Each structure stands twice: as C-alpha cells, then as structure tokens.
Amino acid sequence: MTAMWRSGWQTTAADAVLAVVLLGFGLLATGLAGDNQPGSRPVDAACRALIALAALALSVRRRVPVVTLAVVTVATSTYLLIGYPYGPILLTFLVAVYTVAVRLPVRPAALATGGTLVLLLTHVFFARGPAPGWTGVLPASAWVVVPFAVGVVVRINREAAARARVEQARSRAEQARRQATRSGCALRRRCTTWWGTGWPRSACRRRSPCTCCRSGRSRRRSR
After folding, report:
1. In this model, does residue 16 exceed pLDDT 90?
2. What is the reported pLDDT for 52?
3. CB under 8 Å to 49, separation ≥6 — which residues?
4. 117 with 76: CB under 8 angstroms?
5. What is the Cα–Cα distance from 95 to 79, expressed in whole angstroms?
6. Distance in angstroms (rounded) separating the CA atoms of residues 85 and 118
7. Under 8 Å between Cβ of 143 and 134
8. What pLDDT, in 10s, does the model give residues 127-172?
9. Tell me: the pLDDT tens digits for 2-14?
10. Which residues, 6+ apart, have CB-to-CB distance to 76 below 8 Å?
11. Quick one: pLDDT band at residue 206, thresholds 50, 70, 90?
12. Long-range contacts of the stretch 205-209 (C-beta < 8 A, 24+)
C-alpha cells in the first residue's frame, strides 16, 4: 500500500513539474513567437490565462487523461480562434493527445482524439486573425495525428513487454515445478534402494506416475 501511494505521489509530482515547465515556457516564448507572425493578435492577459489553463491541466493528465485533453483542447482552440500566434501552447496540446493515446485503449482514445481534431480545425476557417483555410488543415491535423500515433505505438510496446514478463514468470514457475518433481522422484528412488520400500503414488507430483513410481508399484505387486 505504501509503495502504491509513493508511486502515485511521484507520478503526480512529475506531472506537476511538467505543467509548471510548460507554463513558464509558454508565458516566456509566446511573445517571441508572435513577433515572427505578422497579423496575429498581440499577447495580452486573456492569452496568458489560456496558456496557464492549458498548461496547468497537465498536472492531472495521468489521473484523468480525457478530462485533461478536453480542457487543453478547449483552451487551445479558443486561443487559436481569437487569433493569438502559434506557439508553445501547441506543445501542451501535443502532450495531452499523447497521454490519452498511451493511457487508454485504442478505440476510446481514437474517439476522444477525433473529437479533438474536429474542434481544433475550427480555427483553420474561423479564426479572427489570418485564417489559413484549407492549406492549414494538414499542419493542424499533424498536431493530433502524430502524438496519437506515437502514443499508440508506446502503449502497444508496453503491453507486449508486460505479456513477455508474464510469460517468463510462467516459464520459470513451470521449470521450478518440474525441478521439484524430479527432486521428489530422485528422493523416492533412494528410499527404495536403501529400504526396499516405496512411496505411495500420491507422493509423486505428476498427474501420471513417473518411472520410479511405476517401478515401485511393480515391486509391491510382485511381493
């Protein structure tokens, strides 16, 4: 119980650190990104609030990945619809999509991500700033498709590794059982050699009597 609590605390702390790092980076770098994007809306208090909302939502990304994705998607889509510059908030969005893909089974993750993609693409046609139109569909889609694909691959690899560990554990248990069976039969043979007596069939751990058990039973019958 203590180990589980410690692991949960460490996960929460790691997510909180990631959220703070992305928050600081977003607040510092968004203005620089806007300087290189003429026509975008200047950074103001509302812009900073949306960046903070998206970043801080990541602090619970592994507890409630779908809720985190929903909050980040709404914040990011609103940010882009208003016309703020493309910037670090998209990194926050990428992390949220990746988390859903790696934490959920493929089907529910795909459904959640599909809704996210539809909402994100609205800014391509309806942004208050210079809307990119159809030419922006592919780049905007990449911010959803790429992290989703990476997350799915990571999840599949983790599941394969977990199955391999379970199979190895079963193999080791089977080897130990066989070793114990061989040891028991060897001990019985020594007993038969020394005293001329044999163990009952139940002493052998195999479902069918082994060679030494059959030989001992034959001796008893001959007597």
Report:
1. yes
2. 96
3. none
4. no
5. 17
6. 20
7. no
8. 776 667 777 788 889 999 999 999 999 999 998 988 888 888 888 8
9. 555 556 678 889 9
10. 50, 54, 89, 90, 92, 93, 120
11. very low
12. 205/177, 205/180, 205/181, 206/181
Contact 82, 117 (CB under 8 A): no
CB 23 within 8 A of CB 95: no
162: its two tokens: 């977990």
Tokens read off for 75: 């914040």
| pTM score over 0.70 | yes
Enter the tokens of residue 192: 């038969």
202: which 2 tokens? 């139940």
Three-class DSSP labels, the chain: CHHHHHHHHHHHHHHHHHHHHHHHHHHHHHHHHHHCCCCCCCCCHHHHHHHHHHHHHHHHCCCCHHHHHHHHHHHHHHHHHHCCCCCCHHHHHHHHHHHHHHHCCHHHHHHHHHHHHHHHCHHHHHCCCCCCHHHHHHHHHHHHHHHHHHHHHHHHHHHHHHHHHHHHHHHHHHHHHHHHHHHHHHHHHHHHHHHCCCCCHHHCCCCCCCHHHHHHHHHHHHC
Structure tokens given for 89: 């908030």
